[in-house]
User: Fold this.
Amino acid sequence: MLSSNENDTYAERGIDEVEASAPEFDDAVDAPDRMRPAIEFRDVHLAFDDKVILDGVSFSVKKGQTKIVLGRSGSGKSTIIRMILGLLKPDAGQIFIDGEEITHHSEPDMMSVRQKIGMVFQEGALFDSLSVYDNVAYRLLEQGVPEDEIDVEVRRMLRFVDLEDAIEKMPNELSGGMRRRVGIARALVGDPQIVLFDEPTAGLDPPTARTICELAIKLRDLQDVSSIFVTHEMNNLRYLSSEYATVNDEGQVVYEKEGEKLCLINTEIMMIRDGQIIFSGKDEELQRNDDPYIRRFIHGT
Amino acid sequence: MHSLLRFLSELQDVSLLLWQAFLSLWSKPRYYADTIRQMDYVGVGSLPIVLLTGFFTGAVLLLQTFETFQYYSMQNESGRLVATSLIRELGPVLSALMVSGRIGSAIAAELGSMVVSQQIDAMRALGTDPIRKLVLPRIVALVVMMPLLTVAADIFGLIGGGAVASLMYNQETSVYTYSVRTGISTSDLLGGIIKPIFFGLIIGSVACHKGLSTSGGTVGVGRSVTNAVVISSIWVIIFDFFLSKLLQYLLDIGRL
Assistant:
């Protein structure tokens, strides 16, 4: 596990080292910890004036699991992510992060919780006045990590998203896809246990969108990161729920389709409509679902 | 009633923001580099417009009043009027209005753009308090630099008045300088420095509040900028009256 040894400096850990081995768990030690959901919502309600945004939402994301949240614009998908970060507070219900209830956390209390979470915003949300290096290094600079360790960590993360060449560029020099990838690199600095993706492929061409999905798959399968992937694009769903990342004999990361060799159990889908969960389960169950709304959604009609 | 409630709600939000910024002044982390950068932008950046405003205000004051003074054979006292008007009122207020236009708009635009492009959310998600990182350095920069800018505007205003007296009305420089020196007291100078501190506080807190409460995309940013400049300018003028009255009482300014 990437974050298993907190005594390691950033400089001592390399992405190659991380990618070279799939996660290994000591069952005896980690089992109770793994039973605890990374994210849990219990009957969460939120309304702005008369408009109901979330209406009794309950779900959980297990350690190392990816939850794909589907829904049309305005259905409340992004609200869920904002609540996990404590950027919005629910009117009723409870929210737990890694077993800790954060429902009524104050802003200073949330700062420590947010250290465990990486967030990838829709348009990247890079700081315009900072270079790619400073954007990715932001969290570490704030924490006062020594400059040489920051440099190693920033390069490691930019290598992970295949953008090491752009290290000195400013955000306005980057394409939409590059901005998202820098956003992912920034979110992954500090090895968060939870990563939230808020429509990271919106407005991107299909090959770039696939690259973003591959990064999410790599995080899920090789780094044991729990994640929520908010999207309304069915292509993302197809990649995330049918492909997995593994390391071949040459030590390279390759993506394979699930089938006889392996069946993905660490990815679930949740569909939101008008602030309520109308579906929760595996992709095969979604495809078989008879609900007319769900059928229209997955067939894009 | 609706407008009154909205006004009270805005006032509460601005006060709350100011209070939160004040509280974060006393704990770490502190962003010294950001504060220095803002001071440079607010102070050095605004210097040319503030000096120009000061110079021509002083010049026009003397231009408009010299002949009246001459009519009453009091032309030797014209420097006193320039000094008193500039240092007590026009220097602080005009500098504040210029800074409100230049810096208030820039703050609201920058923070508003950061809100609509989710950079503020990203900052919070990365564990940084935007009030500490963005609001406090801007308010501190304005509070520190406003009195300095005002003093600079006052000096250039006096020079402007002197230039008109000397070049257009052939008044001896020593006569003008003497009337300036006798026209101002320590209390005037003190009041002229205290006022801009509060004006800086008003401009900073209103502009930051307007920027951070931006909604509605790029159109919303434009609206925030307009509101920041208009509201902070109006508040500067209204607050100036009450502050003048308070300073009159506390420092015995304006009594002959």
